Amino acid sequence: MSDEANRPSVGRTFRSAGDVQVFDGAAPLIRAAADIVVRCALEATRTTGIFRVALAGGSTPNPLYGLLATDAYARRIDWARVEVFWGDERCVPPDDPASNYRSAHDLLLGRVPIVKAHVHRIPGEREPAAAAAAYERELRKTFATPAGPPRTEPGARFDLVLLGLGADGHTASLFPSSAAVRESERWVIAHHLAAASMWRITLTPVVLNAAAEVLFLAAGREKASVVRRVLEGPHQPDVLPAQAIAPRAGRLRWLVDADAAAELTPPSARGA
Ligand code: 6PG
């Protein structure tokens, strides 16, 4: 976890389990996120020659994907040296409107010169358990870790993981009371989400917490309560799975708009 100290930043920064930056609106938040992606890509390609990022699903990151596809940002990334993965996927075909792959493809990956073989889609159309096992093999091959826990050396882990936050505290497809939250060995798990009556495939905290940088994006007033509970409430990852995300040797950052930060304790009230 990154240090607790406040950092000078755009907007207000709160002391938290990670580095939380608050933005006056979704647009500056998305621009800041895009700048972080560009920075991480540059650093990774300088260090290892390749930038490996796990994309988030849901709707919050969609404007980020669209912005990264614009010339202003796309030309700042060496797409030949980018490998893209997903933090989770719905068990649907890749052309299904619910597919996280489809959103990222339509908004970004189909618009930039990324190498097709570097787009590592979670095969949501396959039988869920087999798809999860296949994806774990793909990750282990990518990170040259055929067995055992993920390593945190450069090149052996995600350089950046993008995550969203559900109003119930879930992230990726780590949902409250899900066994995946406490998984200690597997990197990828399939499970049935009764509430949505759909199967999901998710990366587990085992591999997510090996990342060099994890970036949560949260926007909208409907997220204010869960943002406060996750960042300032008691540590209860079974109830709030986003709290299970704490990089072992990496940086945790939250980019939150003012609406989603509305219930956070202001710095002045914390004697900051
Ligand atoms: C998914 C995401 C999920 C998402 C949250 C927030 O597949 O839906 O992985 O974890 O990030 O549900 O979704 P919104 O960004 O749409 O609020």
List the helices and strands and how they pair.
Layout: E1 12-15, E2 19-23, H1 26-47, E3 51-55, H2 62-68, H3 71-74, E4 82-86, E5 88-90, H4 100-107, H5 128-142, E6 160-163, H6 179-182, E7 188-193, E8 198-203, H7 205-208, E9 213-218, H8 224-232, E10 251-257
Parallel strand pairs: 2-10, 3-4, 3-6, 6-9, 9-10
Antiparallel strand pairs: 1-2, 5-8, 7-8
Helix pairs in contact: 1-2
The protein binds 6-phosphogluconic acid (6PG).
Could you characterize what this model shows?
The protein has a single domain, classed as Rossmann fold. It is 27% helix and 19% strand. The chain has helices at residues 26-47, 62-68, 71-74, 100-107, 128-142, 179-182, 205-208, 224-232; strands at 12-15, 19-23, 51-55, 82-86, 88-90, 160-163, 188-193, 198-203, 213-218, 251-257. The strands form two sheets. A seven-stranded mixed sheet has the order 1-2-10-9-6-3-4, with helices on one face. A three-stranded antiparallel sheet has the order 5-8-7. α1 packs across α2 (62-68). The longest helix has 22 residues, at 26-47. 6-phosphogluconic acid binds next to loops. The site of 6-phosphogluconic acid (6PG) has 15 residues, from loops.
